[in-house]
Amino acid sequence: MQAHIVLAHPEPRSYNAHLAAVARQSLEAEGWQVTLSDLYAQGFDPCERPEHYGKRAMPGRFDVQSEQRHASAEDALPPAVEAEIRHLEKADLLILQYPLWWHLPPAMLKGWFDRVFAFGRVYSSRQRFEAGHFAGKRALLSVTVGTSAETYAFDGRSGDIDLLLWPVNFSLAYVGYEVLAPLVTYGVEAGLRYSDPAVVTQRLEQAARDLATALRQLDRRPAIPFNRMSEWGADGRIVPGAPVHSPFIRRRRDLDLG
User: Fold this and answer.
1) 39, 78, 127, 238: which could form a disulfide with 52 (CB 3.0–4.6 Å)?
2) d(CA 74, CA 50)
3) At residue 230, what are phi and psi to the nearest 5 degrees?
4) Taking Cα atoms as reference points, which of 218, 208, 210, 209 lies closest to residue 16?
5) How far is it, in rounded angstroms, from Cα 62 to Cα 129?
6) Which segments in the chain show pLDDT lower than 70?
């Protein structure tokens, strides 16, 4: 089995970097072959731009999808993008390791999605969801957040963590991945600043052990349900009788929040 870890944190001594190392060591101990992309260390450019493409499809106007599709057809995607796609194609498991900043992934990781999930190569209108390029592979988010689990509960002040992570998980499902329930390490920033250092160290060490245990028990980890292509109508809306898995895709415009 092969796994690929994508790390998105600028500090090589960060807790996120530590968790990426724990994940790698844990999987290798179980016999996996593991590769890792440290996006900041590699100098990955998260910005999609005209100069990434030599032979342009539309020299007079930069249209991202047109250039990605043309480069995919010509086998001329930018080398950094091609290298990432090849890692993903070889890997049975993808782990995204990152901190939640302002309720979103770092811009570096968002740009990785923008460029690596290239139109024509990784997805198309016929190549998505269960027919996606990465169908048969699994993906897992390992995310750190600053405050407690309570603040990320359904009624917490930071917002429901499952909803905050839904767009990233949905993007993975869109290109074919079976998306496993995320691993979230809570209280990293607030704990480091305001708590007893010994207590914080003990808690973070336990979180790392929990990650290692979860990776040893991947087959027991539940997958997040998403709708299949057959459950969408020609207008792009969910068909009658199809299951509803998330408030992001629902049957009522207005929800009872009482």
Assistant:
1) 78
2) 16
3) -65, -10
4) 208
5) 28
6) 189-197
